[in-house]
Records
---
Amino acid sequence: MGSSYGRGDDPSAVAAANAVGAGVVVVASAGNSGHNPYLTGSPGSGEGVISVAATDGWSSFPGATVTVDGEAIEAINANGADVSDLGELAVVRLVDDPATPGNEALGCRESDFVAAGVVPDGGQLAVVERGECARVAKAIEGEKAGAAAVLQINSDDSLPPYEGPIFSNPDTGEEFDVTIPFLGVRSSAASAFTADAVATVEPMEITNPNFGAYAGFTSAGPRSGDGALSPNVAAPGVSIASAAVGTGSGVAISSGTSMAAPHVAGVAALSVQAHPTWSVPRIAASIVSTADPDKVVGQDLVTGGVGLVDATRAVTTQVTALGDAFRVESGWAREAALSFGFQESLLGYAGVKAVTIHNDGPKSVTYRVSTTPTAESAKAKVNVSSKSLTVGAGRSATVLLTLTAAAKDVPSSLGHGTFGFHEISGNVTFTSADSVLRVPYLLVPRSNSVVSTSTSALFTKSQNVGDAKKSITLNNLLGAIDADADVFQWGLSDPKDATRELPDDGYDVRAAGVQSFAVGDDTLLVFAINTHKRWSNAASNEYNAVIDVDQDGEPDWYVFSYDSGAVRTGFADGLPETFLADAHTGALYASGFLTQAPTDSSTLLMPVYASSLGLEGEFDYTVETYGRNGGEDVVDAWATYDPTAPALSNGQYVTVKKRGTAKFTVDVDAAGVEAQKPLGTMVVVLDNQSGAGEALLIKVK
C-alpha cells in the first residue's frame, strides 16, 4: 500500500494487477498495520485505480494444542502437517546473542538453529520469533538444522496465518518441501516456551475468530499526503491458494493484500466483459459502489473502503455512481468516492461534491438518496440536494453533497488514542427497488488552538543575562479548543530548505529542544523536534537526535523515532516508537516509550532515560531526519544540555483554555546560559496549526 510504507507479507510496496482490457489498476494495501491510519498511499490518483484491503475468509484452520510443562496452548498448524506422532519434544528457544547482533531469535538462518542447540533427530521443538524473513523460511531453516517441529511466536496477540504446504522459500526462491510441523502461537504465550521445557502436541481444529474481519496485516488509510480515501474495497487475502511458480499444477498458499488484489482484478475483468462499452472509471465504480459493507466484520471506511467486493453485483449492475473529478493524461475522469482531503482550522470545515449517476439499463430507475455517517465520524452536517432521484434509461443525473462541521466539535489530537486521528466520514447511499449503490465520503479534520505569547525574548537587548525568574503569559483567545503547552530548552534552529525535487513531507527541521525530569534515581529526557510542515504519519519518516556523550564531536548514540514494527519485526505497523542505536556497535535497543506524534502534526516528542545513554551530566546533541520520499535534513549545529543543571528550567506543562490565558515561569541560570548557550525556550503546543505554530520560540535575548 504505497505511502504505505508498503511492507507486510509482500516484499513490494505496491502489488498491482491490470484487469485484461480494463485499464483498471488494482493496488494491494500491504502492510502490518493493526488498522492504524495513514498506512496507505496508492500510486496516486489515476484513471481507474482501486486500492484493496484484505479480509480473512477462513472459518476454521488446522490447529494444535501444545502442552508445555502442563500448560495447554492453542497453536495454528500453519502447514497442516501431521502432529499426532511427535511424542515429547525438548523446547529449544532461539535467542539473540548480544555479542553478535544478528536477530538470531528470528530463525532466518540454519546457523541460528544450530547455534541454539538444534541437532538432527534430537526430538526438539525449535521456538522462533516472527520478523525479518518470510514466515515459511523459518520452517525451512529449522528443518535443515534437524528440528522435529518449528514453532513461531507471533508479533501480536493473534495467531499467525495458515500457510498451507510449504514448497519453497519466497525470500530466496529455493525449492524445499517442508515435512515437519510449522506451528504458530500468540505473543502472549511466549513466556511458556523456556529453554529445557518439554512439550507435547495434539491435533485440533481452530475456529477462526477473525473470520470475515480485516486481516491483521492490511493497512489503513487515508492516503498519505492528501488524506484521500484509500483503500476503496476489501477482498479475501488470508491463506489464499494460488499457483506455485515452477511446480506445474502445484499450489502455494499465501497471505497478503497482494492476494486480495487479484480477486478484485478478476472482478474487474468480468465487469469489462459484461460492460464492454463502459469507460475505465465506470468499470472501477461498478466494483467500488456495489461492494457490501455487511460482509465485513467490523467494517471501517478508512481501513477497508466501502465493503467486501461483490462479483455478482459488479457484473449485473447497469448503473454506476461516480464522485470526485480529477485530471488524467487523457483529460478528466471520475472515481467512486468523495475525498474532501485534510483540513485544519480554528473555525470549521466545509466542502461541496457532486455524485453523478449513469443508467445504461433499458428502463428508468428511481433512487432514494440518503447519507449515513460511520461510527467513527466526528459530528458534521451532511446534506444532499435531493432525497429522491430518477435516472432515465441511457441518461445521467447529478446529486450535490454539502458537508459542514465546526472545529469545536472535533476534539484535540491529544488523548485520542495513539494516533490522535479524527475523521468525518460516511456513505451517500442510493437505494432502488432492486439495488444499492454507495459512494463514500471522507474529510480528515484537525482543530486548532491558537496559543501565542507576546514575549519574544527572556531578556531585552539592553539587559544583561543574569539569574532570574521570567514569567511567560500564553493566550488562546481565538482557538477552537483548549490546548496543552509543554516547555523545553530550545537548542537548535534550522531554515526551511526542502528541495522541489523532494518536497517536505514532514522531514524539514525547524527547531529542536530537550526537557528533563527526575524519575526515581534516574532522569527522563524528552527530545522535541519541530518541522516546517506536517507529516501524515510520523512513523513513515526517521527522526534522529544524535547524542555526543563525551562532547568530542563524534556521535555516541542515536535516539531515533521510526516505525515500531519495521524496527522490531521488519514489518511496518504505522506506530512511531523511540529506539536507541549505539553509534559504535550498531546495536539497537528499545527506549521503553512510544513517540508522541499525532497524525497530521509537525512536532514529535522522543523520551529516553539518561541512564540508557550513560549520561551523568552535560552532553551535546544535533538532529537529522530522513523522509519517506528520500528527502533528508541534517542540522549543521550542535546544542549543549545539562540535565543535572539546565540553563533554563523546563518541563512546565500548562493548559490554556480556549478564550483564556495561562502563565508559567522560566528560571534562568546565568552560568548555565554561558556554558550551554541555549537559543531560548521552546513551547510545544501540539494543537496549534501545524508547522511553526506548534513550537513557540522565545529567545534568550
Note: The helical segments are 110-116, 135-145, 257-274, 280-288, 301-304, 311-316, 564-568, 670-676.
---
Amino acid sequence: MIVLRSLSLLIFGLWLSCGSALADKRVALVIGNSAYKNAPRLANPVNDAGLVGGMFRNAGFDTVEIRLDLNASEMRRSLREFAARTRDADMAVIYYAGHGIELDGSNYLVPTDAMLETDGDVLDETIALDRALYAVEPAKQLRLVILDACRDNPFAKTMKRTLASRAIGGGLAKVEPTSPNTMIAFAAKAGSTASDGDSRNSPFAVALTDHLPKPGLDLRKAFGFVRDDVLKKTGNKQEPYVYGSLGGSDVSLVPVRPVAAAGPQANPQESVRKDYELALQAGLREAWEAFLQTYPDGFYANLARVQLKKIAAEEDRTVATEKARLAEQEKARLATERAQKAEQEKAATAAKAAEEARIAAEKAKLVEQAKAEAAERDRKAAEAAAAKSLAEKQALEKAAIEAAAKQAADKKAADAESRKVAALSPPPSSPAPGDLAKSLQSELRRVGCLSAAADGDWNAATQRSLTLFNKYAGTQLDAKLASVDALDALKAKPGRVCPLVCNFGFKADGDQCAKITCKAGYHVGDDNECEKVPERKPPPTARDEPRRRDQDRKDAESAAPKSQASGQMICNNAGCRPVAKGCHLGPVPNANGSAKITGEVCN
C-alpha cells in the first residue's frame, strides 16, 4: 500500500510539473516585519508582504515563501534557505518591508527583536543588505532586491553614538551592486524616507503590484511607472529609485504568453481541470496539497480545499473511532478484572466521551462529504456550461474565420478583375501643355525661383527660372520644355530652393523683402547698406576767384617737376637736362596768363 501511494504521488507530481519544465524557474522570498518589540508597531509591512507575495504567486513563480515578523536568527535562516533555492533558478527576487538603517554608508535590515541601544549593536543585531544580495547571486538571468524599508526609523533617533564621527543617516544609502544583471529598488531615493501610507498598504507596494506583473513589460519601464504612481500619490514627496543595471534585452518579471495559432481556441482551464480530476482519482491529502501548490487560486483551487476538508473530517472520524474502541476495551478490561468501582466509572466516562466524539466526527464527516458531493455537482454543471459556451464561441470564431476567408477571396477576385480591366483600358492621357506649364510656374513660384504670375506661357523668363532651380537644387532638368519630370522634381521640394532677391532699398527678411530704413543723417548707398550723407559745399562766388587762382598756382607749383641741380638742371617727365645758358628756373605763365608752372626763364 505504501509503495502504491508513493508511486501515485510521484506520477501526480510529474504530471503537474511537465507543463512548466521548459519554462524559466522563478523563486521569491517575501519578508514583512511589523511587530517590533523595542519600537512602535508598523501597520503596513505585514499587509504589504501578503499583497506582494500574492502578486508573485499569481505571476506563476515556482516558489514563493512569505515570512512575517522574523527575529534575527529567523531572518538569517530564511536567507540561507532561499540562497539554496536560487542555485538552479533563472530569476530570484527578495522583497523586504519593515525598518532599515544606514550606518557609515552601508545598509542594514532590522529584525523584530533588535534593540540597537548603540551604533555598535547594528553589526550584531541587524542583517546587512549584502546578505540579501548574496542570497540572490546564484540566479542566472535576474537578481532583484526590493526594499520597502526607507521609513522614518525610531532606532536612529534613540541609539547612542560610540564615535561622534560615525554617520547614521535618514533612509538608506546609495548602493551600486557589483554582480551583473542585479537591480536594487528603493521605495524612496537614497537619503530620504518613505511613507507607510494611510490605507492598508503603502503606495510603493500598491504600485509594484500594479505594474511588475504585466506580461512582457521590461523591469526598467515597470519601475518607471512605479515611480510615477508613487510621486503622484505622495504629492512628489516620495520618489522610488532603482540602482544597478541590466543588459540591452528586455527583462520582464512575467513573460509574454505565446500567441496561439489562429482558429478555435482551447479552454484555458482544460489543463487545470485534468490535474484536478487526476487528484480526485488519487483521493490523497498529498495529491490535493500538491495541486494547491501549483494552482493556489481560482475555481478548482476552492474545490480542492473542499476535498481537503473532507479528507480531514475522515481522518478525524478515524481517530475518534479508534479512541472510542480503545476506551470501550479499557472499560471491558476493568470490568473483567473486577477493578475498583471508581476506576470502572472513570473508564465508563472516558468511553462515553470517546463515543460522543466518534459520533460528532461521523456527523462532521457526513457534512463535509455532502459539501464535497455538492461541490462536485456544481463543478460538473459549471464545466458543462463552460463547454457549451466554449462551443458557441468556437462556432462564432469559425463563422468569423469563414466570413473573413470569403471576404478575402472576394477581394482577391475583385482585384484580379480590376487588373484585367486596367490591362484592357488605354493609359491615361498626359496633361495639356498649357496646364502643365501653369503647374510648373506655380511650383517655381512656391520654391522662390519665379516672381511672375503663372500664366501657362513657357517663355524665356520661365525657362530662366527653371535653370535657376537646377542651379540651387542640383538637378539637370531641360529648361526649354515643360515636362512631368520637372513637375515631380519641384513637388518633391518642401520649401524655398532659390534665394530671395530683393530690389534696391530692400533686404531679405525670411521669405519676404523688407524696406531698408536708415537713421537720421544716413541713406542707402550703392552697396544697399546705410551710409553717412556727405556734406554739400556751396558753389564759388566772384569774391572767391582771387583766392581760387592763388590756390591753383600753389597747386601747380607743388605739382611741377623741380630742378635736381640747384638751377643747373631741369627735370620733367621726359627726364633731366642742363639749364640753358642765360636761363634760370622760375614761374612760367600759362596760356591764360596766370603763373602756374615752373620752367626755364631766359633773359
Note: Residues 1-8, 14-22, 259-264, 560-567 have pLDDT under 50 and may be disordered.
